[in-house]
Amino acid sequence: MVKKLLELNKIYNIDCLEGLKQLEDNSIDLVITSPPYEDITGAGYSAKSKDVLFLKLYSEFIDKVFNELLRVLKPTGQIFFNIKTQTYNKTIRTPHWLEFLESFQKFKLKSYIIWKYAGSFDSTDKRFHLDYEIIYHLSKTDDIYLNENCGIKDALTSVWYVPHNISNRLHPTQMPEVLVERILKITGKEGITVLDIFSGVGTTQTVAKKFGYNYLGFEINPQYVEIANKRLDQTTLASIPPQAKASGILEAIL
Ligand SMILES: C[S@@+](CC[C@H](N)C(=O)[O-])C[C@H]1O[C@@H](n2cnc3c(N)ncnc32)[C@H](O)[C@@H]1O
After folding, report:
1. 65: exposed, middle or buried (C-beta count within 10 Å: 0-12, 13-18, 19+)?
2. What's 99's domain CATH number?
3. For ligand 1, which residues put their CB under 6 angstroms from it?
4. Phi-psi region of 186 (alpha: psi -120 to 50; beta: other; left: phi over 0)
5. Which of 43, 75, 160 is nearest to 112 (CA)?
6. CA–CA separation, 21 vs 97, rounded Å?
7. Which of 61, 65, 199 to mutate to test the pocket of ligand 1 (most atoms within 8 A of CB)?
């Protein structure tokens, strides 16, 4: 059970570490989240330059986050943690440092998913395009649910092609709904609670609501919470877009 302090189906304007503290042990089925890249307000340091101090504080912050996620995740729970390669001083910095965190190593790293999209947001500095992001798929045990027959062709492959172009973008790093739909179709079961600790404009919660699942979220920026709440108000169970259904957009693309 989720602690009484936090009602289900809400996004709280709160630092995620504060929010996580208010959740019961073993209470969350699914975490879908994408951490902030440049401003970890909760860690007390914000650096556009992504310097060494930033990386140190950032990794300490993420370490705390993973320790809390380990505590709140059910033994049957799963985490999809989306993070991307950064550019720093005209060179790239992959997120593989994450795998060396003590907290990360307490999880089972089940899958290493490449989210591939067309085009690129970075074609400078003579490099191959950064046209992918990584999704770490983690669990506490092997007792997890993955529905291979959810209607997505080759559902359990590890390279997912999901276009990144979002019309009417509400957030600079907004996740495409189709990505969350894919995860929910493969892992979702009636009655689950889906958590996004870095909610942004509430993409995870919006899609969870469309699927009829419980959701919870934390987001430090009150403006994003406001936008997310408006999105949620306009979302109903019946409004699942056709691309989320069995013969989904991914099938059409692949
Ligand atoms: C990569 S964005 C997530 C975007 C989201 N997936 C969406 O589709 O809108 C990360 C978010 O984390 C928020 N954030 C940063 N530090 C935070 C903290 N300590 N606790 C909670 N949220 C935080 C940022 O304001 C930002 O909106």
Report:
1. buried
2. 3.40.50.150
3. 15-16, 34, 36, 40-42, 171, 173-175, 198, 200-201, 203, 218-221, 224
4. alpha
5. 160
6. 25
7. 199
Give the distance (Å) from ligand 1 centre to CA of residue 207.
Answer: 17
Give how many domains the chain has, as a whole number. 1
pTM of the model: 0.91
Cross-strand bridge partners of residue 232: none
Distance of alpha carbon 6 from alpha carbon 8, whole angstroms? 6
Distance (Å) from CA 199 to ligand 1 centroid: 5
* 161-214 per-position pLDDT tens digit: 999 877 889 998 899 999 999 999 999 999 999 999 999 999 999 999 999 999
pLDDT tens sequence across 21-48: 999 999 999 999 999 876 555 455 555 5
Q: Which of 113, 183, 178, 179 is nearest to 144 (CA)?
A: 183
Here the tokens at position 220 are 């430090």
- Residue 204 domain boundaries: 3-253
CA 192 → CA 29, 188, 197, 216, distances in Å? 6, 7, 16, 11
d(CA 220, ligand 1 centre) in Å: 7
